[in-house]
Amino acid sequence: MLRTAMSSPQPSPLPPAGQLLANAGLPRRVVEALELTLHLVVEHVTQPLARVLPALAGEVATLDDYGAQHRVTFDALGAPQRLLRDGDAMVRLFLGGIERELAALRDPPAPSVPTATTTTMPRIQELRLVDEDEDDAATIIGALALRHESRAALPIQLLCQRFGVLAGAPAFEPGTLPVGPRRLAELLTEACGVAGFGLQLTAAVLREFDRQVLATYGAFAETLNALLARLGVMPGLSYVPLRPRPRPTGAFPPEAAAGDGGIAQGPAPSDTVASAAAGATDMPGFDLLRHLLAARRGLAERFRHMPASPQARPELDTAAALRMLDAAHGLPSEGDVDALRQWLLLRARHERGAAVMLSPADADSFELLALLYARLSQDLQPGSPAPGMLAQLRLPLARLALAHREFFEDPAHPARQLLDVVVESGAAGQSADDVDPQFLAQLQQVVDTVARAPGDPAAAFAQAVEIVEAQQQALQRRAEMAERRSVEAARGKERLAVARRRASAVIEGAMAGLRLPAFHRNMLRQAWADVLTLAHLRHGEEAEEWISLVGDTRDLALAGAGEAAAPEGLAAQVEQWLVTVGHHQEDAARIARVLAASPDETGDDAASRTELALRLKARARLGEDALGDTTAAAPRTAAEETAYARLRTLPFGTWMTFRGEDGRPLRRRLAWWSPATDAVLFVNQRGQRVAETTLDSVARELAAGRAAIVAAETAGPVERAWRAVVQSLRGLVARDTGARAVQ
User: Fold this and answer.
1) Measured between alpha carbons, how far is 106 from 165 in angstroms, rounded to an integer?
2) Which of 437, 511, 699, 729 stands the most exposed, by the fewest C-beta atoms within 10 Å?
3) What is the pLDDT of residues 246-271, one digit of tens each?
4) How many domains does the chain have?
5) Domain shared by 332 and 417, yes or no
6) What DSSP string describes 376-427?
7) What is the pTM of this model?
8) pLDDT tens digits, residue range 602-659?
9) What is the rounded distance in angstroms from the CA atom of residue 247 to the CA atom of residue 258?
10) CB under 8 Å, gap of 24 or more: what pairs does 612-618 form?
11) Is residue 508 a part of any domain in this protein?
C-alpha cells in the first residue's frame, strides 16, 4: 500500500517561558490565571516527564520494545542515544507547545478546509511504503484520551467550563481542552517529531507518558480547578447529574422530541435538579460512598464482554471478620489493602472448609480503604519512612473501618489525624533535613504501638493522637524559635546593610567636587566607612554623634584635598573611633594622621603607604557581607516584573516550591523579606534557614517556571485524598448518568 508523503512545517524557535503569554494581548487576569496554569503543568506534567526519560532510554535499548526483530530499523537502534541527547530539548518543545496553546486561547479557530471532491494522483516521488508504526501514535493517543477522560470525567468537565470563561467562548470539548489528556498527548507527539524522534521512539514516549505521568492526571485536574476557583473563575461551579424521569407518552409533540435526534433541548426542569441535589446531600456519608461504588461496579459490568455471575457463597459476618483480623498481627507489612482482604477470605475458607464472601458493607469498606491508600501513596516522597508506616497501619485501619464506619465520614477522626501526620512526614517536596529525625523516631514508635495494639483499634488511635499532638506542639515551638532567630539575624543584616549604604553615601557626598589623592580617598572609603557604619548602627540618623561624624567626614575630605586644615583635635577623635571599630593602636594612629593631614603633610613614604593599604585590604570591612552581590543585574522582563510585583504583596509565611538539583520540587516557607534591601529569607518546616536570596532572583525563578507559589490549603492530606477519591467516583457516575440520559 502506498501513501502520499506529507512533511510538517518546523515551528518557529521558542521564546523564553512566559513570554508568549505576556505578549498574547490577553486581559491581565486571564494572563495571570494562565501563567499559574503553566506553572502547574510544569510541576505535574513536564517535570515528571523529564524524570522518566532516562529510565525509558534504558528500556528502549532492548529490541523487544520495538516489536519483532525483522522490524528493527537503524532509527530504533539509535533511539536510546537520541533520547538521552535530545530528551531535555523535547521536553522544552513540549512545554513551549502547551504555552502556545494557552496563549492562543482567544484566537479564532482555524477555518476548516473543505474536502476536495476529486483526488489528484500523487507524483511518484511522493509515494512511500506505509509504516505500521505511523498509526500507532494515533491509536495510543485515542486510547489514553478515552481512559483518562473517563477516569477524571468530572474535573475535566469543570475545566472545560472554566477554560471557556477564560477564552470568552462556549465550554471546550474534552478533546480540545488545552490541558486535557488528548491535547497533551498530541502536543507531546508534535514535540517528539520536531526533536527528530522516530515513530517507534515517539510511541514508546507516549506509552511511558500514559503510564507514569497521566497516572496522576485526576489530581492535577482537581488542583487546577481549585486554583482557578480561587482566582475567581466560576468559583461556585459544581456538577449535579440529571436523573431522567419517566414521563407519560405524548407529553411532548413528536416533532419536538425528534428535532435533534431525540434529545430534548432547553433548560432542565428545576424540580429535577433540586431532587438530584437533595438526593446527593441528604444521603448519609457511608451510604453515599457505597452508592457510588455500586454505580462504578455497574458501569464496569456493562463494559465486560461477559456478565459476571458469581456463585452464591455464604457471607462472612463482620464479627467473624474482626476476630480473624485480630489474630493477624503476625502478617508481614508488605502488600496493599486488597492483599489483606484476600488473606481474610483465605483464612475464612481454611477455618470453614468452604469459600465465603464478605458482607456488602465490609467489601465496600475494604474497597474504599484501598482507594484511599492508593491516593495517599501518590503524594509520598520516595525513600521516606512514611510508606512503611502506612503499611504498618493497614491492618489496624482495616479493623477500624469494619467496626467503626464513621472513619469514612468524620474528618476529625483520630485515625485520620494520625494518617495526616504520617503522610506529612513523608510528603513530596521535602528534603532530608525538613523533618526532625527525633520526631520521626517518636512517630515510628507510636505507629508500632498502634499496629500491635490488641482489641478495639479506636482506643489505640485516640491515645496515639494525644501522644503525637504533644510531640507536634513541642516541635512547633522549636520551629517557631528557630525561625524567630533566623528572622532576627536577617533583620540585623538588613540594618547593617542600610548603615553601610548610608555611610558610603555620606563619604561620596563629602568627596563630591574635590580632588583627593587616591590613597586618601581609599582610606575614607575603607577605614572611615567602618566608623560611620558602626555609628549609624549604634545611634541612628538623629543622634548628635552621627551628625557630628557627618561634619567630620566633610572636614577630612577638605583636609585631604588641601582645601582647608583639619580642626584641632580631629586626628585624636579619628584615632579613637578607629580603635573602637577594631584597629590596632599603631594602625589607628597612622590612619588618623593620614586622614587629618593635607597631601603635603602626611610624611609617610610610598613603602609605608603600600604596607598600610595592604593591611586594610586584608581586613574584613564592617557590613560588606550584608550588602550581598552589588553587581548590576539585567533588566527584568515583563513577566519577571509581574512576578516581582506579586512577590512584594505576599504575606510572611507563604509556602513556595523550588526545583531541586534532582528536578524534584522542594517546599520552602517565605519567613521574611526586606522592603529596604529586597533580601529574602526562606526556612523549612522546622524553622531552619535554608536560603537567603533577593526578591529579584525569586521573581526570575517564578517567571522561568522553576518556582511556584503554593496556594493556601486548610485541609490535611487525608482530607484532600478523600475528596479526590469521592470526586473520581462522582465523575464516573456523572459520566454514566449523562450517557444513559442521551441514549
Assistant:
1) 10
2) 437
3) 444 333 333 333 333 333 333 333 33
4) 4
5) yes
6) HHTTBPTTSSHHHHHHHTHHHHHHHHHH-GGGGT-TT-HHHHHHHHHHHHTB
7) 0.53
8) 555 555 667 676 776 656 566 555 555 556 678 889 999 999 999 998 888 888 988 8
9) 16
10) 612/587, 613/519, 613/522, 615/587, 616/522, 616/523, 616/526, 616/527, 616/591, 617/526
11) no
